[in-house]
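User: Sequence recovery, please. Input:
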């Protein structure tokens, strides 16, 4: 991640919507710039903010996006795959609840939804490179979260097995990020298997302390 703290920055996902000035990248970055923000973190799942596939394929598109941000007095600090990252690993308990994070074509099909999410993270790696970014932010997803409370007792080794699978799913995605010169920062958050320092260390162990 970045070694120099800059700012202030703002996560556009918390404000993006269908009403102006929050319904386009140009308008929302102009709004953010006028408020004194210097950086914007872009939700890669929101087509009003960015066409992720196009950004992964076209340096020209990315240059135009950066130009729009610069014109409005801000710069893109990272792309975010919080929603797609969460869908990389979902316990079946939450299948119906999280389907809305993905396109209708994969609703009701957890395997297809996971494959879509993984491809999205890989596209974000390429898009980040095209944007000249070296850092990225995401969630890990959660396979063990329903078993956080120790009653009724968990089966022995259940949490360890969940983290092993989490590492298995994320390692190739981290490889894709590394191949594109991008480091990933995971937000530690309730509802994710990595929700504190201890669980993050468990995740790191299962990814071989991936650089």
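Assistant: Recovered sequence (211 residues):
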């Amino acid at each position: 991640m970045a070694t120099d703290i800059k700012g202030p920055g703002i996560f556009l996902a918390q404000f993006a919507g269908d009403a102006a000035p929050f319904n386009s990248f140009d308008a929302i970055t102009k709004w953010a710039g006028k408020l004194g923000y210097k950086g914007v973190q872009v939700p890669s799942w929101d087509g009003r903010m960015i066409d992720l596939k196009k950004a992964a394929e076209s340096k020209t598109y990315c240059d135009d996006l950066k130009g729009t941000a610069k014109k409005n007095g801000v710069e893109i600090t990272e792309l975010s795959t919080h929603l797609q990252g969460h869908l990389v690993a979902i316990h079946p308990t939450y299948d119906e609840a999280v389907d809305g994070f993905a396109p209708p074509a994969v609703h009701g099909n957890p395997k297809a939804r996971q494959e879509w999410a993984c491809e999205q993270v890989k596209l974000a790696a390429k898009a980040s490179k095209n944007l000249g970014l070296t850092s990225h932010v995401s969630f890990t997803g959660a396979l063990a979260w329903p078993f956080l409370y120790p009653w009724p007792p968990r089966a022995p080794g259940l949490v360890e097995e969940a983290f092993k699978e989490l590492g298995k799913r994320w390692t190739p995605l981290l490889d894709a990020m590394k191949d594109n010169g991008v480091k990933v920062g995971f937000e530690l958050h309730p509802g994710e298997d990595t929700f504190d320092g201890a669980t993050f260390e468990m995740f790191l162990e299962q990814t071989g302390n991936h650089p």
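The mean pLDDT is 97.
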